[in-house]
Amino acid sequence: MSHVVAPRGKVDLWNELRSVTQARIGLDRVGNALSTRSELELRAAHELARDAVAGKCDVPALAEAISTLGMGSPTVLLSKATSLDEYLRRPDLGRQLEGGYVPSPSPADLGVVLADGLSPAALDLHGLPLVDAIRKELGPTWTWAAPVIALGARVGLGDQIGSALRVKTVLVIIGERPGLSVPHSLGIYITHDPRPGRTDAERNCVSNIHPPDGLGYDDAARVAAELVRGASRTGASGVHLKDRSIEEVSATLPLAT
């Protein structure tokens, strides 16, 4: 986020707005161009976003950390995308497991896939606390298959994994596409009755998870848990399932007068 210091004696009316957003608003200008500072900050942000896409997840550390949650030891799986270039150019390969390998069936209510996606570092930073928050929010009445860590993964890979695990609902926690203000953000994609061929219209998404500036772990877990419960009640996810948790929060707020 760019903070521009106003010249002495001049009141910068943008300062208050800049304090509550990461968006680049009211940037300082020199003639028709951005100031040198703003230009350099923009280029630095662009490089951070590129680095986020090209980064790699610390799989051993993540697997060891996830193992401490009592959900089982994670299985590490690869997609058919064999390189970053192939991953970016061939999204279809990121939706297929390499070699046709699938995890062993482990009938349970829920499965969780931790996918590197377009920001592997986001998974390193936020994966463990987010999974822990979801597990706690849902409580002990739900059973979990052993977690899966998927590399070179697109969201759709969770359909194949969830189907192989024979879980009722799969949650894919994946690194989101970096922006120029947020390089390390996670999303949760929830699909009921996962199987190959599911479309994006048949899943729900909770995005922009990157505390402290984005959605926090507990809030994201609350929304995800409500969607999981709703999918269980209705037997469907996606456009047929609405997140009621936001309405419940809104109902507790005072009306504007």
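^ that was protein a. below is b, sequence first then the tokens
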Amino acid sequence: MDRLKPATDPGEGQGQARPGRRSFVCRLGAGVSAVLASAVPGLASRRTGSGVGSGGSVGDRQGLLEDELQVRRLHETYEMLLDDGRYEDVVELFAEDAEVVFNGGVFEGRRSGVRRLFVDRFRPALAGKRTEVPPGLELEVERQPAVVTVAADRQTADARFACSIQVGAPIASDSQLVRMARLHGEGIRRWWEGGSYEASYVKHPGEGGWRIKRLEYRVLSRADYRGGGSRARPMSVPALTKRFPEDPEGPDRLA
């Protein structure tokens, strides 16, 4: 069972800078905003270039730019909550009828499939935290620019954000050494993945602004990280093949 696990320790302060681990995002032209208005209060946020067109009145363009910024802040909140290991809070960023596509599976519904993915599957492996791209694989990941497009009626939006994360899955062994490792929260094989989040959003004024409607995690590269970043080698990972409830942490359907 694949588990996302980016590389920061839970318990780090919210909004703290992580220059080394975030250098990949900085190379995409990211900057930090002081206030997060419409997602989770108190978290810093980051935005890149604008995806809003020049048509319409000044008021229309301003409204679209404001919505674009809120969507970017929502994604930044999503990444920061994963960095901090706050998986229950991550789930609250999704719409009730949201779905997440991950490793060949589709997880449906905020309180069912989406929660099963983040809380049951990701949390045990401290999944979703960002890490640097291994040497030699930077260009392939950096080809994914950050783009946000808000619909003219300002009720929906689409976006793509690059990601560079650490992933993990339990070691399939019943040896005494592995059992002892599991008792100490270990026994997990970890690797690096780079790719993009392809997302769509919907505006819910009654629920505090924008929510994630659909999130698809697309992998461009994987590399074994056990020998260190400079020794990382490409690798493959099997897609999910069992649905819930046969797999207690599995998807509602296969993609």
